[in-house]
Amino acid sequence: MEMPKYMTLVTWIKKKIESGELKYGEKVYSENELSAMFHISRQTVRQAINILAQDKYLESRQGSGTYVVFNTTVKREPTKTIGVVTTYVRAYIFPQIIRGIEDVLTKNGYSMQLAFTHNKIQNESRVLRSMLEKGMDGMIIEPTQSGLPNPNFKIYEEIQRQRIPVIFINSGYPGMKIPHVSLNDRAAGLLATEYLIRAGHKRIAGIFKSDDHQGHLRYAGYLDALLKAGYEIHDENVFWYSTQDVPDFSKFEQIILRRIEGCTGLLCYNDEVGMRIVEIMKRNGIAIPEDLSLISIDNSDLAALCEVPLTSVAHPMNVLGETAAQNLLRLIQDHTFKATVDFEPKIVERKSVRVLE
């Protein structure tokens, strides 16, 4: 005897959910989509969805859609502990971000287990596996080398399978459906480059980080601004570096000097790079901002303490940490909460940019 059409759909959706292909909290296809996929009427689709709702596989929400409510994992006992993973801890913008996270978690009765990866994928693997074993109510994670394919994808799949809420900070892995709380990095690159353009600079170089997704986004914003202004793109004026290059940045001195040749403006990936560029320029008799105007991103303490105080795009730091923690706690209570936030950039003016006559 042939299976009724609605039961064919019921069986198909149950298999998708039980295999983990459709995950807890995910929105399923609309009635119109299922009708077209299975060549059945919307009434038949509704009949199948009603059965799945009765069996506690799906839940229909008025004005929103139909969601998976069947959990394939064993319910975990709350630990009141949040795992926090950053690339670095004690320097640059990280203490302020971590402080913001900790303040919110402490006020809400949660403790924080902190770990860092030094932006190395093997460290990320070790840290995430350790946190999975110990059990966390949620995780706040700064991705490691987010500009490259991630070999730890299976670990993230396991975190999601166990229904542990996660929020990425500062970036995210393209292709992973995990919310993030970040500076709008593309807008930051755009704003910084437009600032130089408004100051009269037409040939603008850029230094960007290749193995972090923020570098790609800031570069995209840099391109957006140049194209919007009608300026030609010069590949020879762009320098890319990676995490491994940072400790000995001076080895690229001659390459960087060639990259900025003919340019009056320079956008640096962050303040740490900006400070190193100021040192390189000083050694080579290039005055900032008289000979080269420089703008960076993050507005860290380094920007203010640099020998030439840097004009910089502000990173939200403490507020970013607070927001990530607040949104994670919301996710723990409501898995459908839209937790992604992109902070719009603002420029803090100092003395590293000259207005051309």
TrEMBL record:
The gene is araR. This is Arabinose metabolism transcriptional repressor. Pfam families: GntR, Peripla_BP_3. One of its GO terms (molecular function) is DNA-binding transcription factor activity. InterPro entries: AraR_ligand_bind_dom, LacI/GalR-like_sensor, Peripla_BP_I, Tscrpt_reg_HTH_GntR, WH-like_DNA-bd_sf, WH_DNA-bd_sf. PROSITE patterns: HTH_GNTR (PS50949). It comes from Caproiciproducens galactitolivorans. Keywords: DNA-binding, Transcription, Transcription regulation. SMART domains: HTH_GNTR. PANTHER family: ARABINOSE METABOLISM TRANSCRIPTIONAL REPRESSOR (PTHR30146:SF150), LACI-RELATED TRANSCRIPTIONAL REPRESSOR (PTHR30146). Residues 3-71 form the HTH gntR-type domain.
